[in-house]
């Protein structure tokens, strides 16, 4: 193993994407430094490490920069092989990748937009979000985690639903994820947030709520300024 | 009963990706094309989430999404044919995957936008966006190839497959729209790469004929223009 491993995460405390990276490192017991970014004033290090997208998270490992949370998760799994987060068998591995991409490409966006839009547009996004959540709920079934008995790639990818979605729903005054329609997902959320490793990494709910509430206020204020 | 089946046809660049991968591995499979405008029972059953091609069916188990499929193929047949598609080390794998995300999320949509543009301004904007994306890939190619023929170095690698599937479409659109998209002057390395890629035996085996892609592109353009005209009448 390398002598002085340098592992840094360029992150933002409220971001579900940098949470993914930190959770994976924590699950594998990899010591790392968290470098908090001011998203309104991105550091030269961030801009140099991710010049194409200029976004967090970025993993810096011995000077190598890896951006994009799902790509970072695979890199972490391949580099630190204890407590694997991807299944070994090819079909299961492929399915884990498929579901993580599904979460990013379809689910998170629909849920996010449901919370920031209104009227008919909101209804449309809410329908899309519910359809996605239904698919995930069916896929999870009776399993404890998407990864089986332990937290895996899909669970880590789905962490948005474990905390952020609940907070956004509260701010928007809507209900998307509920025990009646999505019993498996709700049970999964309880199990996921009860895990010690997860609790250590999650941002404080009240701080998150405050941030999203002020964002909502700012949006409403801009709208009223139009008139 | 073929152990390996692939739903789709090579006119789709995403299906072509998987065919290139299977060709590189010299894996035999049964190709199951879909009828244009219709989705088969098998497709709907195998890919209920997206209902899209390509779907690889291996020992009756489906795998969907071209990038996922190519990684699957590489894992199941690691040493076959021309050998590994994904790079050996984790960092280079991350780079190939990063640029694949870029191709899928940014570059491909801008290529589609060129084909769909209804005004000269819209087309010019889409073209510029696409070229800007290609210029980034030109830089990436120089770094990743390290002077060799492919993104994967001496061998065709993951990013070669994931980007190379669009070559015949780029050329078809250049011909039909009288444009230069992959500019030799500003993208000399990529230009060289296209020649190497097209010349590779495994790629030649599955690459659709340029003429067919040109005809297909003209046909869908005509269909789109007719639909737009009908809608305004």
UniProtKB/TrEMBL annotation, chain A:
CC terms in the record's Gene Ontology section: cytoplasm
Q: Name one Pfam family in it.
A: GST_N
Q: Please write the reaction equations for the catalytic activity of this protein.
A: RX + glutathione = an S-substituted glutathione + a halide anion + H(+)
Which PROSITE patterns did the record assign?
GST_CTER, GST_NTER
InterPro entries assigned to the protein according to its UniProt record, in alphabetical order: Glutathione-S-Trfase_C-like, Glutathione_S-Trfase, Glutathione_S-Trfase_N, GST_C, GST_C_Tau, Omega/Tau-like
GO terms (BP aspect): glutathione metabolic process
Q: Which PANTHER family match?
A: GLUTATHIONE S-TRANSFERASE U8, GLUTATHIONE S-TRANSFERASE, GST, SUPERFAMILY, GST DOMAIN CONTAINING
Provide the family line.
Belongs to the GST superfamily.
**Protein name according to UniProt:** glutathione transferase
From TrEMBL, chain B:
User: Any idea which UniProt keywords this protein has?
Assistant: Cytoplasm, Transferase
Domain GST C-terminal: from-to ranges:
89-216
Report the EC number(s), separated by commas if there are several.
Answer: 2.5.1.18
Chief location of this protein within or outside the cell:
cytoplasm
Q: Residue limits of the GST N-terminal domain?
A: 2-81
Protein localization: Cytoplasm, Cytosol
PROSITE patterns for this protein: GST_CTER (PS50405), GST_NTER (PS50404)
The question of whether Cytoplasm is a record keyword is answered with yes
Q: Name one GO biological process term.
A: glutathione metabolic process
Ranges in a coiled coil? none
Gene Ontology cellular-component terms listed? cytosol
Q: What class of enzyme is it?
A: transferase
Per the record, what are the reactions this protein catalyses? RX + glutathione = an S-substituted glutathione + a halide anion + H(+)
Is Lyase given among the entry's keywords? no
Q: Name the family the entry cites.
A: Belongs to the GST superfamily. Tau family.
Please give the function described in this protein's UniProt entry.
Is involved in the conjugation of reduced glutathione to a wide number of exogenous and endogenous hydrophobic electrophiles.
Q: Which PANTHER family match?
A: GLUTATHIONE S-TRANSFERASE U17, GLUTATHIONE S-TRANSFERASE, GST, SUPERFAMILY, GST DOMAIN CONTAINING
Specify the protein name. Answer: Glutathione S-transferase
State the organism named in the record.
Answer: Zingiber officinale
Question: Top-down, what is the taxonomic lineage of the species of origin?
Answer: Eukaryota, Viridiplantae, Streptophyta, Embryophyta, Tracheophyta
């Amino acid at each position: 193993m390398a002598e002085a491993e340098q592992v840094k995460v360029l992150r933002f405390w409220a971001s579900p994407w940098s949470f993914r990276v930190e959770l994976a490192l924590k699950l594998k017991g990899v010591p790392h430094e968290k470098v908090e970014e001011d998203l309104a004033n991105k550091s030269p290090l961030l801009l140099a490490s991710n010049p194409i997208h200029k976004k967090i998270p970025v993993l810096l490992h011995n000077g190598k920069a890896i951006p994009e949370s799902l790509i970072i998760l695979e890199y972490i799994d391949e580099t630190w092989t204890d407590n694997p987060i991807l299944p070994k068998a090819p079909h299961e591995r492929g399915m884990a990748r498929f579901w993580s991409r599904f979460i990013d490409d379809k689910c998170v966006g629909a849920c996010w937009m449901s919370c920031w839009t209104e009227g008919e547009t909101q209804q449309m996004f809410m329908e899309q979000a519910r359809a996605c959540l239904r698919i995930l709920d069916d896929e999870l079934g009776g399993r404890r985690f998407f990864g089986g008995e332990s937290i895996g790639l899909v669970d880590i990818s789905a962490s948005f639903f474990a905390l952020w979605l609940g907070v956004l729903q509260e701010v928007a005054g809507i209900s998307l994820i509920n025990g009646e329609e999505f019993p498996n997902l709700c049970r999964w959320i309880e199990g996921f947030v009860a895990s010690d490793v997860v609790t250590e990494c999650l941002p404080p709910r009240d701080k998150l709520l405050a941030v999203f509430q002020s964002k909502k206020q700012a949006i409403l204020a801009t709208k009223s300024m139009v008139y | 009963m073929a152990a390996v089946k692939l739903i789709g046809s090579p006119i789709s660049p995403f299906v072509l990706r998987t065919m290139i991968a299977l060709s590189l591995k010299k894996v035999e499979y049964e190709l199951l094309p879909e009828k244009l405008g219709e989705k088969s029972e098998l497709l709907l059953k195998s890919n209920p989430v997206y209902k899209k091609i390509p779907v690889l069916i291996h020992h009756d188990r489906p795998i969907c999404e071209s990038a996922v499929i190519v990684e699957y193929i590489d894992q199941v047949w690691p040493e076959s044919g021309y050998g590994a598609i994904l790079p050996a080390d984790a960092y280079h794998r991350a780079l190939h995957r990063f640029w694949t995300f870029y191709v899928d999320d940014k570059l491909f949509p801008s290529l589609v936008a060129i084909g769909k543009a209804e005004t000269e301004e819209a087309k010019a904007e889409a073209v510029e966006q696409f070229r800007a994306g290609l210029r980034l890939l030109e830089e990436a190619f120089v770094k990743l190839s390290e002077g060799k023929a492919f993104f994967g170095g001496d061998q065709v690698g993951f990013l070669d497959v994931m980007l190379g599937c669009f070559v015949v479409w780029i050329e078809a659109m250049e011909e039909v729209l009288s444009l230069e998209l992959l500019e030799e002057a500003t993208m000399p390395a990529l230009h060289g790469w296209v020649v190497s890629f097209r010349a590779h035996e495994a790629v030649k085996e599955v690459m659709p004929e340029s003429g067919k892609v040109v005809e297909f592109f003209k046909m869908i353009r005509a269909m789109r223009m007719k639909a737009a005209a009908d809608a305004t009448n």
